[in-house]
Amino acid sequence: MSIKQLRTLLAIEKSGSFSAAADQLFITKAAVGQQMKLLEESLNTKLFDRRRLIPTVNPAGMLFAKEAQKVIENYDKLFNSTHADEDFSGTISVGSVPSAILALVPLAVKSMMQEVIKTKIRIVPGISTDLYDHVLNGSIDVVILSQPQRIEPSLQWEVLAEEPLVLLTSSGYKGNNPIKILQTEPYIRLAQRTSVGSLADRWLTKNKIVVKETMIMDSMETLGCMVAHGLGVSVVPDLTKPDPIFSNLRKITLSNSSDARILGMLTRKDNPKQKVIMKFKQHINNTIKATSL
């Protein structure tokens, strides 16, 4: 029996299936199955009802999961107290929205790795809603994302930057009137399932602007590439630390607009890796304050 197996069992119990647990833990479904087989063998007890196509946690498994939760909580407390005055040695998982993963996150990680040489960092890209779920269930240690509409009491939210909405055009575009440009030029929209896409759509609706939508992108980096090639314009946040493509695009201020994307950091309050998470936050803030890439 191992702590890893107990964490996997809890992921299955909370998510409802081996597949969902595998997605949360970023391992294969086969690895989840193998861990649970070894756990059952070590206990000499069946923890799952496998009579159906999708195995479910049986009553014995639920009872054991309840006790496993206590074991994990005590283990994390013990880990924290034992390593309180030492440099963290292990892996920290960092989730990030794509717009921050191209420049802000790697610059901060590069700086941090010079200080915490025993730490390995795993980077996980994703949209804000998915990242929120991952940090809530403990499968990711810390995430950089747009401000959630609601924050669970078990989570710690820290604001990193406020990024005002701007009109994004290719570097050679000559127009200056954002309303006229939006009404006449092809519009590239960010998918509404993304926080930034929803924010931009709300601004367009509030200002009663009807655009000529020609493309829908799932991320800001792909949107930036399309805009750079002159395929359209878009309303997006003015990134705190832009990648080279975004840096070379024109950003036209939206008159009388106070709308902005609030970028922040989210982690669990009971995460046993708080010391290294705080170091990461420090390097993120230092990167944001830096005047150049």
List the helices and strands and how they pair.
Layout: H1 3-15, H2 18-25, H3 29-43, E1 48-49, E2 56-57, H4 59-82, E3 90-96, H5 98-101, H6 104-113, E4 119-125, H7 128-136, E5 142-146, E6 155-169, H8 178-184, E7 186-190, H9 195-206, E8 212-217, H10 220-228, E9 234-237, H11 244-247, E10 250-253, E11 260-268, H12 274-289
Parallel strand pairs: 3-4, 3-5, 7-8
Antiparallel strand pairs: 1-2, 5-11, 6-9, 6-10, 6-11
Helix pairs in contact: 1-2, 1-3, 1-4, 2-3, 6-12
Key terms:
293 residues, alpha/beta, 45% helix, seven-stranded mixed β-sheet, 12 helices, 2 domains, elongated, D-Maltodextrin-Binding Protein, domain 2, two-stranded antiparallel ribbon, Arc Repressor Mutant, subunit A
Quick summary of this structure?
With 293 residues, the chain is an alpha/beta fold. 45% of the residues lie in helices and 23% in strands.
Structure, described:
This protein is of the alpha/beta class. It has 2 domains: 3-82, Arc Repressor Mutant, subunit A (Orthogonal Bundle), CATH 1.10.10; 97-293, 3-Layer(aba) Sandwich (D-Maltodextrin-Binding Protein, domain 2), CATH 3.40.190.290. Helices cover 45% and strands 23% of the residues. The chain has helices at 3-15, 18-25, 29-43, 59-82, 98-101, 104-113, 128-136, 178-184, 195-206, 220-228, 244-247, 274-289; strands at 48-49, 56-57, 90-96, 119-125, 142-146, 155-169, 186-190, 212-217, 234-237, 250-253, 260-268. Strands 3, 4, 5, 6, 9, 10 and 11 form a 7-stranded mixed beta sheet that branches. A hairpin with a 6-residue loop joins β1 (48-49) and β2. The longest helix is centred in the first third of the chain and has 24 residues, at 59-82. It starts with a helix and ends with a helix.
